[in-house]
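Re: your question from the hallway

Yes, I did run it. Sequences:
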Amino acid sequence: MKLFRRVLSASMLGAALVSTAAAADLDEVVARGELIWAADQEGGGPHVFPDPANPQRLTGFEVELAALLAEELGVKARFQQGQWDRLPLLLGRAADCVINGIELTPERQRDYHCSRPYFAYSLQLLPRRDGPLDTFHTLASPGPKGRWRVGVLTGSAAESVMRSRTDLEVDVIGYDGTIDSLEQVLTGVLDAAVMDDCIFNFYADRFSRLRTVDRPFAGGFYTILTAGDSPKLSAAIDVAIGRLIADGRLKSLYDRWDLAGRQQMLMLRDAAEIPVARRKSLGELARDTLPLLLKSAGMTVLLSCLAFPLAVCIGLAVAVGRMYGPVWLRPLLTAYVEVLRGTPLMLQLYAIFFLLPKIGLALPALVAAVIGLALNYSAYESEIYRAGLKAVPLGQFEASLSLGLSKWQALRHVLVPQAVRIVMPPVTSDFIALFKDTSVCSAITVIELTKRYSVLALSTGRIVELAVVTALLYLCMSWPLALLSRWVEQRLERPAAGGGMTEG
Amino acid sequence: MFTVSSLTKSWTHLRVLDDVSLTGAEGTVTALVGPSGSGKSTLLRCLNGLETFDAGEITIAGHRLAAGPHAPGLLERLRRDVGMVFQQFNLFAHLSTVDNVALAPRVVLGLSAAESRARGLELLDRVGLRAFANARPATLSGGQQQRVAIARALAMRPRVMLFDEPTSALDPEMTAEVMGVIVELARAGQTMVVVTHDHGFARRAASRVVELAAGRVVRQGLAADVL
Ligand SMILES: Nc1ncnc2c1ncn2[C@@H]1O[C@H](COP(=O)(O)OP(=O)(O)OP(=O)(O)O)[C@@H](O)[C@H]1O
Ligand SMILES: [Mg+2]
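Structure:
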C-alpha cells in the first residue's frame, strides 16, 4: 500500500507540474535579479562539471553560456543542480530554464518551450580499438557473441536514435551516468557506446583505448528549455542567443572550449525546423507504453523474488555464525554486517557492477542487481534473525542438548525454526521494502517499473495517465505478495500437523 | 550406574558445590533434597554436562566427566544415555507433542520418520497422552506438558533419568498425575535422580535420599532414615 501511495503522490506532483505551477516569467527573473538555470554537474564535460583545479567551482561551456545569457537579460546566472533525465521537471519550480545538452526533439517541442538551437551535436559509435567493430555498418549483422551490446545515456538522443534502429542487431543498454557506458566498453561488458561527439572528444584522453568509427551517423541540436507558460522569458532567450551568434561571442566561446566555433556557426545557420510531435491518443499511449510497463513490472517481481530468499539465507547464516560460530569468525561477520548496513545500496550496486569488471569479474546487470540487493538486505535480515534467536528461551537449547543433539542439530531443528517464526512480521515488511528498493537498480542499467515510468512519462509527457497505470501495476503486484506473506505466516504458526515431521 | 566423587564448583566467589560425593546403583531412585539455593539443580546439571565443575569426577552410565571444559562429542554420547526433565518442561514450542518426542530418535539416533513417530506415539500412550499427539504444547495443561517432557526424555531410552523439581510448577492435581508417571517408572526399574521438595514422594518412591545444604552433603541414606 505504501508503494501505491508513493506513486500516487508522485502523480499528484506531476499533475501540479503540468497544470497549476505558475512558471517564473521574464518579469520575475528581472525582479529577482537572477536567472536560475538547471543542469546536472554529474553529466560532466564539456557541458557542466566541477573545475578540477577547484572542485567547489563549476565550469563548462554551458556555464559560460548561462553567464552570457544572464548578462543579456541584465541579471546574474545562478546554477541549480538536478538529475539529468529529470531536469525538465524543475521548470517553474526550482529553475527558470534548463541548459544541459538537451537535444531538440519533436516530443520536447510539444511538452516544453524550446529555444532556438545553440549547439550542434553529432552521434558517434565508440568501440574499443582492438575490438571487431570497425564500421557502423557492422552492427547490421550479429557479432561473434550474438547481438551487439551498445551503451547509451538514458533519456538522451543517442538512446532514442539507437532504439529506433530496429534494422540493427543491437541490444541498447541505458546508463544513468554519462561516461558509465565508456567504462563498460573498456571492461568488455559492452561492445560500444554511442554518445554526443563533444563528450567523447572531451574524455578521449582518459579513454584512449576507445575510438570513433566512421563519420557521425546522426546529429541534431541542443536547445534551452523553459516552461510552457513563460513566453516572455522564452522570447528573450531566443533574442539573446541570436545576439551571441551575430556578434561572434558564441563562436569565440566554442573556440575557447575547442568545440570548432566556425563549424558550429555554419551548422546553427543551416538549422532546419524540427516538427512538433502530435499528442498521442489514449489508445496509442496504451499501445506504446503498456507492454514496456508490464515487462518492467515483471523485472521488479523477478528482482524481489530472486534477491529476497537469497538475502534471508545469507542473513540467517550470518546471524548463526555471529552467535554460535567459531570465535575468530564473529568479528568478521560483525564487520560484514556493519559495512553493508553503513553504506548505501546504490554504492554497493555500483561497486559490484562497475568496479568488479576492473578485476576481471564482469557480471550481467541482472545478476549484479540480485547479488547487490541480496547482500545489502542480508545485513538487515541477519540483525533480525539475531534478535529472533535471542528471543528463543534458553531452556529450548538446553532441552535439545539434554536429548543428545549437537549444537548444530539444536540450531537446525529447534532454535532456527522458532526464530524464523518469531521474526516473520519484520521479515515480511522487509520484503516489501526490498520490493521498493529494486528501483535503485536502475543505476546499473536494470530497468524496473519506477524507472520505466519516469522514462516514459518524460518522453511522452503523459505524467498523470502513466502514474495511474504504474500505481495500478504496483498494486497488482503488492497485493498477491501481501497475501502470500500472510499465508506463509499462518502456515508457520500452525504446528507440524498429521504425519509430517516438518520443521522450518 | 553413577558415581560423584569430591565434586566442587564455584560461581565466581560463591562455592555452590563443596566436596560432594554420592553414588546410585542401577535401578535405584535417588531423591535430592535440601533448602533453596543449596546446589541441587547445579549438581543435577553437572550430571549431564550442562554445567562444568572445578574439581572432582563424575562417572555416569559408563561415561566419565572430569573437571574443566568437556569435549562436545563426549557430552553428546553421554546425553543419549542420560535424560533430563526440567521444572519448566521446555517442550519445543514449534512442534506437535508427538514430534517433540520423536525429534531426538530421528535426529540423534537416525531412525526413519515412521519409526521415530511410532516410538513417539508409543511413549505418549505410556504417559496417557496419545490422544494429544498432534496438539501444540501450548494448548496442554502444565501436567500434560510435563508428561510429554518425560516421554520425550524416555524416547532416547536413557539409562539414567534426571528430574529437576518436575512438579514444583504444577498445582496439586497435576502434581499427582506427573508423580504417578514417575512412580510407575521407578517400579519399572528406571534409574533416576529426582530433585524434589516433596518428602512424601521421596518416602514413597526413593531408594535413597541425599540432603544438600550450602553445597555440602549433610545427610544421605535410606529414605526412612533421613526423612
Ligand atoms: N548461572 C549462575 N551464576 C551465578 N550463580 C548461580 C548460577 N546458577 C546458580 N547460581 C547460584 O548457585 C547457588 C545454587 O543454585 P541451585 O540452583 O543449584 O540451587 P537449588 O538447590 O537448585 O535451589 P532451588 O531449590 O531454589 O532450585 C545459588 O546460590 C544460586 O544463586
Ligand atoms: Mg533448583
